[in-house]
Amino acid sequence: MSEAIDYSIFVGTSEDGLAQMSLAIDGIDCAACIGEIENGVKALPGVVRARLNYSTHRLTVAWSEGTSPDRVVGQLEALGYRAHPFAGRAEESEARHARWLLRCLGVAGFAAMNIMLLSVSVWSGNVTDITPETRDFFHWISALIALPAAAYAGQPFFQSAVRAIRSGRLNMDVPITIGVTLALGMSVVETAMSQPHAYFDSAIMLLFFLLAGRYLDHEARRRTRATAGNIAALRGEMAHRIGADGVPVLVPVQALQPGDTILIHPGERVAADGVVASGLSAVDESLVTGETLPRALKAGDHVYAGSLNGEGALHLTVTAGGENTLVDDVQRLLDGALAEKGAYVRLADRVARLYAPMVHLTALVSAIGWLLAGAGLHDAVMIAVAVLIITCPCALALAVPAVQVTATGRLFRAGLLINAGDMLERLAAVDTVVFDKTGTLTLPEPALALPRAADPDLVALAGRLALSSRHPLAGVIATRAKGPALEHVTEVSGQGIEAIIDGRRARLGSLSFCDAIAPADLPADASLIAFRHGEKVLVMGVAQALRPDAREVVAELKARGLDVRILSGDRPAAVTPVAEALGIVAAEAGLKPADKIAALDALKAAGRRVLMVGDGLNDAPALAAATVSLSPASGAAVTQAHADAVFLGRRLWPVLAAVDGARTAARLMRQNLAIAVGYNIIAVPLAIAGFVTPLVAALAMSGSSILVTVNALRAARPGRKEEAVGDDGATGEAGALTEVAA
To answer: Which processes are annotated in GO (biological process) (predicted)?
Structure first.
């Protein structure tokens, strides 16, 4: 007996005051399921909204009165779907389903290879001198292989068809199930009657090709969900709340209320939005706001949940806790942007609904027509089976996935990992590329900028002193150390650190702390750190360095007719020099997540199709709202989860490779679809006219599938310009900081 679930504990309240619950749905096999589920749930009294995200299989239901969580789940079960709370179990279930599909595919492939070996002998023998006894023996061996193999490998289609019929509806798996069952059943009858033809090979080949397409589609969507996480987890699950007796008590972040005082230890993420009550520290807000530099905090300063605390402890007065923090606002923006993408899938849903009734009607009319024309029952049934098989959407199902797999391999070699199955189609249509700056156009880690006349020995000595500092910027200087950390180092709060070296005082910190003046030959956007040893003074800069091939890639994108822009959460002083170095005119700085969404909406309202390239938490909603999105592997995990693709390495070249690869793939997809449609235009009338046996129908269907697959292999070859930029991008990073400063 399965364990009962109290679904009421998963019910929350929507912004408009309605009861709301999110469920993970099992059993969704095609886009046609979307309308069936949404309309079925909306039929319940009191249900106001029901929205299913096809990519995540997440159903969000909102109701006023007259229904309950159990009624919603019961309605889904009546429709033939299983539901459970949207949580980690959803991914576990999808992973199990993927492994099951792969096993079914393996069984069908193994059986098809063996049956085809037997069938070739029968085909050649039918036109030569094979004896009926030998032919029947081969047919029975084929039956012993095909029947159990079909019973196992056909489960994804059979189970889906049974669920659909029980709930009084049709889906694309019903005609597939009927065609395979009739082909196998008639083959057994034909073999028992010692007839020359059997169709075991047709049925198994049909299952193999259909399973290949279904597995590829399932894996593309599952990879999108595999890394998807809860943004709110960035702030942690627990917080140290100061009790009435002044003692910190560990409580869940959901329990925090405005007015509570919490303790933030060094190195912890801030658990709630609030105002600093006491303490001195610096926080890294790059995942929240996109700001590259740590921000110094003192009493009275505001800080956001998700920020990473530096070396000092902070007491924070909560201003927004529970689900009202900036992190939660970003989550809501992200959910809304993801929901908008469902419209693309629902368009395919409306087309998919027409397939099942049209196939059944065509096969039925063909059988009745031949019966009325005087044909026997056997011939009429076999013609109907041929129609069901030859109209199988195998070529149509493989037209896009075959290109996707080939193009994905090409892009993988270019350092690009695709998360969304339809990413290539959407990317091919873009006319505008929007970059974030920090960690995207620039390298994820800051680089050290030195004056032209810097003394290498003085730099190395500063690095040894920096080894004793916990300041984020000191870590960059510490990489230049030649030797162990210095002893007896003293920290001066808010200023820097000092020590005695060779009898002289050495200081590392702010310009005023070291009595230094900034030189003119450091980047304008660099954070300055001074080092003084006796009378020797060195001022260094820590700044973001451009990716080594950023200039070439931006130039090539422009050469392809794309409008290139920058939308950044960083300050104008950091964005302007990068835009100038890359020749990008349209650059906006200081943008919050909602500002980026608004900018993208404005571009989309103007008819633009936008590629967004960004990292960091603040880019996650923008990535989801864009037509298509890319994120560097160095970006925040949540950003990668909601990007359509992730690129690896220090170069920007994979972005260009993605654009070129997508355009090539889109062209091949259109060609494949034309081949598949043309095949049906020619083949279906021949099947209806009785010129096609089930075997020929399966061969024709397989031939069209092979043709689109061979055509898809052309997507594996990169273009010459793409290869050239890739080679150029492999050069070193010398001069990157100088280019930004210029």
So the answer is: copper ion homeostasis
